[in-house]
Amino acid sequence: MNMNRREFLAAAAGGMAIAVLPFSGLAQLKNHLRYKAVAFDAFPIFDPRPVFALTTELIPGKGEELVGLWRTRQFEYTWLRTLSGHYVDFPTVTRDALEFAAKSLKVELSPSTRQRLLDSYFQLKAWPDVVPALRRLKEAGLRLGFLSNFSHAMLAANIKSAGLDGYFEQLLSTDQVRAFKPDSRSYRMGVDAFGLAPGKIVFAAFAGWDAAGAKSFGYPTFWVNRQNGVEEELEVHPDAVGGVDELANFVGV
Question: What pTM did the predictor assign?
């Protein structure tokens, strides 16, 4: 059957519309998202429990007490160093906190024990719920990154250890601004790196104080409260609390 020019153009236009529809649909799916990116602290993704288990194994009798003091001093040192303007990277803070904890408890650490404990922070695995949630977020078009006190080397090593290559667009370490969280300079890295307003970036926190800091900065904040902690008394509240799978629900995917 012969077609005139008008009929041919109409048919061609219809074919183009059908061909373009899937791509248009994908674009609409991405554009409908209220949030455009998710910035993670390290520990909603990486499980630190093997570090603690190794400590109790290597230091029987005082391992649990050492873990508690080590962890507390670790973060206290980040705050003190930021406030005093004497920044060092997180592996150095971790070493110094371990030394303090051991001396406080009168625990003698052999060089090999000390090194095994410090190296364990570069060999973390992902929590069991992480990969399915990351896949959902990535497939929906969310841009993903870390915004962490960890050094870049720690982030890269643990991504490899956990088998998470390809998920994260940004590896933002506080080394870049020489100020640990909750200093506003650290949180601003996400805005600068993603090129988005704070309200378009969800921050996923592990610690209650980090959730409060991110919310105060202006991020919509999801607290991945794996330790069943209580909220800090800082007059700000996370937008939602739950597991990483519930984070995917929170952002609407």
Answer: 0.86
Write out pLDDT tens, residues 206-222. Answer: 999 999 999 999 999 99
Residue 42's CB: how many other CB atoms inside 10 A? 20
Average pLDDT score over the chain: 90
Question: Mapping DSSP to helix (H, G, I), strand (E, B) and coil, where does residue 121 land?
Answer: helix
How far apart (Å, rounded) are the C-alpha atoms in residues 68 and 4? 82
Average pLDDT, stretch 148-171? 98
Domains in the chain and their CATH numbers? 35-47+123-251 (3.40.50.1000), 49-122 (1.10.150.240)
- Of 104, 102, 122, 125, the closest CA to residue 55 belongs to 102
What are the two backbone dihedrals, phi and then psi, of residue 31, each rounded to the nearest 5 degrees? -70, -25
Catalytic residue set? 41
